[in-house]
Target: DNA mismatch repair protein MutL
Amino acid sequence: DILISQIAAGEVIERPASAIKELLENALDAGATQIEIRIEEGGLRRLQIIDNGRGIAREQLPLALTRHATSKIASLADLERVTSLGFRGEALASMAAVSRLTLASRPASAEHGWKVDVQPGREAPPAEPAAVPPGTVIEVIDLFSATPARRKFLKSPTTEAAYCLDVIRRIALSHPDVQFVVHQDGKEIRRWPATTPRQRIETLVGDGGAGGNRLLPVSAQAGPLTLEGLLGTPDAARARSDRQYLFVNGRFVRDRMLAQAIRQAYRDRLHGERYPVFALFLTIDPTLVDANVHPAKTEVRFRDPAAVRHLVFHAVENALGTALP
Ligand code: ADP
Ligand code: MG
Model:
């Protein structure tokens, strides 16, 4: 039983960064406006996420840790139009299978919170009262310590911490109205207060405006598709593939077709191989895109890829056109 849950867990939780992604999505689904993240030893020793979201009531705590239990979907029909980031009810159960997990939570209306401390692969013990502010605190301790095979595939703590930060950056980009504070090994390394989408992108994708790295606005619409965002200006173009962000309905995705379309637009306009920074947000009718792919994957399937490509290509071309002398 424990073995099966550990195998299943490996699919969702591959490394500390995948745990962070799931935990942040849960905090956002709970309506948090302030999220604090603590990463120790690349997240392998300890990951902690503190949010000020709506919390979990005492009677829901055991359910939150149960596989395939989700509070976000009530029927199969809901699956078609899911708007929450999570809906499989797998993440917490998977983490509890491969780490020691503590969960403390308090809805704002409750007098105090409740806490459970689950040993790796064991059943959750009864909840105990806990003095916590409204919201949720989740700690993932000694991730994969009981599954050395999994641990062997991980990189150094420094690299794992960098992967964690990549994930946090992506999520922060698509949630500018939420404050994120990141601590690494006891030190605060990032603080992004709630702000406008433009300012958040400038902070995370540009250089905050300091180096004159002007970002051009992109805005286009065609039928059920809209595209908004910012592109690096030609003169400020830096080949930084780690600063290229595409979001579909708020989710970070990698899409070769669209990456190629953007590169092509730059090439046509600038006659060079420059492929600079960007953060683009595509909004599309959810029924025209398949979101029900594997949770750890970052690809999407569009029902009409050509229409999406067309919009993105021309929007980028237009934005670059206005920047040319
Ligand atoms: P899913 O997000 O797919 O529902 P999870 O395993 O990630 O599954 O979480 C299980 C349940 O625990 C969620 O449906 C939600 O009710 C609750 N939960 C988890 N994290 C939080 C949080 N930070 N704040 C409030 N509720 C949470
Ligand atoms: Mg979830």
User: Anything to note?
Assistant: The pocket of magnesium ion (ligand 2) is lined by residues 22, 25-26, 86, 91 (CB under 6 Å). The chain has two domains: 2-192, 197-323.
